[in-house]
Fold:
Amino acid sequence: MLNRGIDTNELGSAGALGFWTRKVYLTGFADGSITAVIRPGDRSGRTTRGWLPEKTDVAVRFIDVQGHTPPGVNQDDPRWVNPTFLPDDGTTIRITECLVKTIGELTEEDLRGCSPDCATPELVRYHLGVVYNMELPDVDQVITIRRFEHRPKVTE
Structure:
């Protein structure tokens, strides 16, 4: 049974060996319609949380039950709760581009390939608020757009 991409300590960054996403996006990954995602903050640097290397195959893991990270709490604290994942179905992507912009700078082209809940800059604000349990970000919020191509599913 596969179990890729769930290491929470590699490079000091949750998900560094895998790309984590919510299970609501399963269909978009299965049919190839999702080819870009948006994350809060600048995640372009190797030492930043959630950094992923370009031109490298990455395991996609679908979150079954969301974890909980209280503010100011590190992974050694018992209040830190890691997410649980659906079984690894072999979904694999290769990051092809990483763009850093503010929400206010987003264009229709920037949002091409994102999930339907990120179809406009205004929807991006709500997407980030809901997914990351944060106050509604303003248009000056920096975000990272990761573009990727779908790779053959890994079977072993």
